[in-house]
Amino acid sequence: MKPFSVSTPEGTKDLLYSDCLARRGVQAALGSLFRRRGYSEIITPEVEYYDLFLQSGNPLPQEAMRKLVDQSGKILVMRPDNTAPIARICASRLQSANLPLRLYYSQTVFRSGSANRGRNSEIAQCGVELIGAPGRRADLEMVATAVQALEACGVSDFRIELGHAGFFRALAAQLDLDEEAYERLRGAVEGKNFASLEELLDSYGKLPAAAALRKLSMLFGGAEVLDEARSLFDGGEAREALDLLAWLYKELSAAGMENRVQFDLGLVHQLEYYTGVVFRGYAAGAGSVVLSGGRYDNLMASFGRPAPATGFAVDVDAVAGCLAPPEPPVPDTVVHYAPECLRGALRLADSMPPGACQLSPYENPEESVALAGEKGAKCVVFLDNGTVREVKL
Fold this sequence. Notes:
Mean pLDDT: 91
CATH superfamily of the largest domain: Bira Bifunctional Protein, Domain 2
Number of helices: 13
Number of strands: 16
Strand content: 15-25%
Number of domains: 2
Largest sheet: 9 strands, mixed
Order of helices and strands: HEEHEEHEEHEHHHHEHHEEEEHEHEHEE
Shape: elongated
C-alpha cells in the first residue's frame, strides 16, 4: 500500500515528541518568570477584524496577513500580532482597570506572503506588555526582563541589542525628506545598504546629520558606541536618546547584566510603530532574531485610551532550537492488570515519574511482555486480585 504523502501547507510543520517537549519547556519557563514579575495571562481570539490592525497602525504589510471573510462580508485576519489585540482589550474590557497593567501571553501569530517567505507562518510567541508605565524605569524593567527571559529558558550564549527610535528620527529631521525618501532612508539603514544610503545622502554633503546617518549602520558594539555617536551628532532628541541608553547600560551593569547587553543604533525596524527604546535578542544557534520589543507610546491612543506602553515577544521555537533537544521519556515499567484491577494499575502508574509507566492494552500476559520488550521497558508488573508480581526483563 502506497504511504500517505500529503504535506502540510507552506510555512507550517508538524511538531513531534522532542519538539513538543522543547516548546512546552520554553513556554513553561517564560510563563513562570512572567507570573513572578507580576504579569497576568491574557488570551485573545485567533481571528480578529482586519480593521483592528489598520486602526493600530500595525507595521506588518498587508500581504503578511492571512485574510478571511465572515458571513456578513467583513474581512477578518488570523492574528498576525499579539500587541494590537491586547491594546484593544485594555481600551475596552479593561478600560476601568487601574494603570499600569501587566499582561503576558503565550499564543500563536499567523503570517504569510512574500514578506514571510522561507520562514514559519505559524509563530509561537510568549511575551509581556506593560501598559501605562512611562519613563526610563519601565524601559529598564523591560530590558532586564528580556535578559532574564532568555536565561530562564536555559539559553547561555545570547545578547540583547539596544537602540532608540528617537536617534534616527533626530538625524532624519535635519534633512528635508519627503515620506518616500524617509522610508527609503530607513530601509537603507536597517538593511545596511551602503550604496543606497550614499545615493540618498549625496546631496547633503558634510552636514553633521548626514555624516552620522552614513555611519549609523556601523554604530554597534559596547558602550563606546554611544561616545562615538555623540561625536557625530549630539543635538536635542538625539542627546536625550543617547543619555537614556547610557543610563540603561549603567543600571543593567549594576545588576550584573553588562555582558548581555550591546548597542545597535542602526536598529530602526518598524520605526513608525516604536517611539523610544527598541531592542532585539540574538542567540547562538538561532538563524533569526529570538526576541524583539520596545516602547510604543502611540498605540493605545488609536483605541481611545492614550497610555504609554512597552513590551517584547519571544519566538518560542527559535529559542527552543538553541537548546539541546529533550529526550522523550522511555517507560521503565509496563503494567498488566486483571479484570477489576484498573484502580490499582492507575495508582501504580501515578506513583511513578511521568512517562515511566504504561498500562498494557492487552489481555494476554504474553502480549504485555512482548510490548514491554518493544518499548524498552525494564520490567512488567502483573496485578491480579490484590497480588502484585514483578517480572524483570
